Amino acid sequence: MGGPGLWRRVVRSVANSRRRGGSRNAVRASDSILWPQRQRILSGIESHGYVVRSSIVWYSSSSSRVEPLGKGGKQDDRSSASWIKSFPPSLQPFACLARLDKPIGTWLLAWPCFWSIALAAPAGSLPDLKMLALFGTGAILLRGAGCTVNDLLDRDIDGKVDRTKLRPIASGALSPAQGVGFLGCQLLLGLGILLQLNDFSRILGASSLLLVGTYPLMKRWTFWPQAYLGLTFNWGALLGWSAIQGSLNPAVVLPLYLSGICWTLVYDTIYAHQDKEDDLKVGVKSTALRFGDHTCLWLTGFSAASVSFLALAGYNTGIGWPFYGGVLGTACHLAWQLQTLDISNSDDCNRKFGSNKWLGAIVFGGIVLGKLQ
Question: Across the chain, which distance is largest between two alpha carbons, in Å?
Fold first, then answer.
């Protein structure tokens, strides 16, 4: 635990700050005291209601929640969801590493899978519920694995970015070796899901790992990492169809895949505007930096392309008219996002990004109703 002297100094600092500043305080401890021994004292401090992140001790006396503070001493709205605190303390960093506290990424990965499964259903039928469950579980595992890879490769960069400096590996809550071990577990579980599919889909699904493993490097090489993310996140548009049909129908899955890629370019560019100042400092690239003040113009083009490709995919399946109501709803949602977007306001960017889970639901609902019509 770093010795009784260290423990007493940490607890005394927190106690003194509580008397001075109220029930919830952030206490900055000396880097020379905490940084070298952070790993050894972390578990003991967390078990007493304290947590060390980037040489800061946070304490919550009113509950067991640990709430990091953002810029200017304000609470970081990207802190862990409270339900994560119901996990055993030793598992909480792993849950955060897999982003279980931030399910939006899982939804964005799952929706193209669900769209494809629904489009592949016979006319007059609901989508295969077993496949929806398998792909939903797979989305949780694969998204978590992707986040683990990302955090391992970006641990030095993440520590320099305000939004990401509290991630488990960047902050020191988990070591890189622990991250690699956790990644192995995630991939093993993902393999179990993949083996439930037909042989063609197993090969197609396994081929996506190349995209998953290389995506985190793209921001170092190109201003278009969001396009590469689109290739990765929308692989399910191909895989969902093949899981039902046993093969691919290019006339359907390629427009659907391209629609998803264009959609990803929209929502992830909005997301990237939150970090553009930090990205400039650390030297990484994004479409937010590439588009700059012309972002809305670029995203309008990608939105139009996404809606057009989506309509084409449905048309090529001979789907019923309710599907096109979903297409119209999708177009309206995208128009609302871009019409009201403030790229200089990170909170607004975060809200618009998160709203895309509902856009995915609109598309899915339109497909299901179109199939039933």
Answer: 73
Those residues with Cβ within 8 angstroms of residue 168's Cβ, 6 or more apart along the chain or in another chain: 93, 94, 96, 97, 151, 174, 179
Pairing between strand 56-60 and 24-28?
antiparallel
Q: pLDDT of 105-160, one tens digit each?
A: 999 999 999 999 999 999 999 999 999 999 999 999 999 999 999 899 888 888 77
**CB atoms near residue 115 (< 10 Å):** 29
CA distances from 44 to 40, 47, 49, 50, 373 (A): 8, 5, 9, 8, 59
Burial of 42 (0-12, 13-18, 19+ CB in 10 A): buried
Cα–Cα distance, 60 to 64 (Å, whole number): 6
* Residue whose tokens read 């106690």: 15
For the chain, the first-to-last Cα distance in angstroms comes to 65
Three-state secondary-structure class, residue 34? helix
